[in-house]
Amino acid sequence: MKTKAQKTKLAFKKLMTADVVNLGVERPENFTYKTGQFAEFLFLDPKNPKKKTKRAYSICSVSNDKNIEFLIKLVPNGAGSDYIRKLNEGNTVEISGPYGHFILEDKEEPLVFIATGVGVAPIIGLLRESLNNLGYKKDVRLLFGLRGEEDIFLVDHLDELKEKHSNFDYVLTLSRPSDKWTGTKGRVTDYLSKYIDKKAHYYICGNIDMASDTKKTLEDSGIKEENIHFEAF
Ligand SMILES: Cc1cc2nc3c(=O)[nH]c(=O)nc-3n(C[C@H](O)[C@H](O)[C@H](O)COP(=O)(O)OP(=O)(O)OC[C@H]3O[C@@H](n4cnc5c(N)ncnc54)[C@H](O)[C@@H]3O)c2cc1C
């Protein structure tokens, strides 16, 4: 149910890489959401401190988790990024939502998730929802793109999911790895052809160029538009 802006507390703040943080806020009692949706944080506008401004962040927790969690990339001189840099556990935060339609379909189909960077935020929720909560038995795949080794996060969690669910597998590919990297290299779009399945539902989340290129490649490969779910930021 959509709620107007309400105040809650920052439950935790954890650094995942040099510029990605995992935030958890206490879930207000009347804030219910579907896994994959996003919320907005409201805070004083640094350009006009008499006014509030807001930033959208995808929820990476699942709807029955105690806290509402986010994975946020801190960009240089970003208003939202600077606000989040200064937040400490126990601080009051103001959020509104939930918003968005990046949610699972009612019917179980094979799932292919494609994410770059913090675009994995809503997708990690959808993975946990489909595998742990709904007990999906059809194939669930994740193609996850990051830049270099220093940007790697969440793989422990993905490995745990893989160990627990034989129908889940993922590939992490680095677009700019060091010479020492022996894993998969290149962009997620380089590997899409291996994941074409006309029955599957595709969930794409990441920067706009990757998301648009991926959507186009899938459509050119005969995937129906209604099977492609798209979030870009
Ligand atoms: C539906 C939706 C869901 C979103 N979910 C998430 C999420 O889960 N996690 C998340 O981190 N963000 C998410 N975003 C993006 C987020 O809302 C902000 O736009 C982003 O964090 C930058 O905000 P900022 O206030 O720090 O920077 P701004 O003050 O908006 O921008 C400051 C400067 O940073 C530059 N900049 C902005 N974004 C980037 C970037 N990614 N890399 C480098 N430079 C940049 C701008 O060009 C500008 O020069 C989402 C956006 C939408 C619309």
Automatic annotation (TrEMBL):
Molecular functions (GO terms): oxidoreductase activity
FAD-binding FR-type domain segment(s): 2-105
Highest taxon listed in the record's lineage: Bacteria
One Pfam family matching this protein: NAD_binding_1
SUPFAM superfamilies xrefs: Ferredoxin reductase-like, C-terminal NADP-linked domain (SSF52343), Riboflavin synthase domain-like (SSF63380)
Protein name (record): FAD-binding FR-type domain-containing protein
